[in-house]
Design a protein that fits this description.
The chain has 133 residues and is an alpha+beta fold. The chain is built from four helices and four strands, in the order ααβββαβα. It has a single domain, classed as Aminopeptidase (3-Layer(aba) Sandwich).
Length: 133
Amino acid sequence: MVQLMLELGYPTAQQDLAIRFASFMQNPGYGVAVCQLNEVVIGLIAWSRSELFTRDRVRFHIEALVVASQYKRNGAGKKLLEFVEEIAQKNAPSIVDLTSGLRRAKDGTHEFYHSLGYKNEGHMAKLYLSKEL
């Protein structure tokens, strides 16, 4: 998973990822799933579940989704997203959302999300802001 995190743009040491993973998985409604091919992890998805204050929905936020570059365009990313969408369906009404950095547009990531029905338009269009403390 360390190599996948590097490809996603978040380099991390194995021990740091192991600590973060253990802490993440202690939260109810949080999860990580991997996609394997010939017993090799080629992709992963991580999500968090929360109750929305502004709408009568359960929110599933995609925290990370990555497929190793040599395995892209083989359906692994779609299967990983569909896996979380199935969980969200069981908690309907629900919404699945994610953020994708502008740097990802050039590699086709944004088009991939659009092709699966993810939107950032209309009255629900978003501007992502953050502040590290």
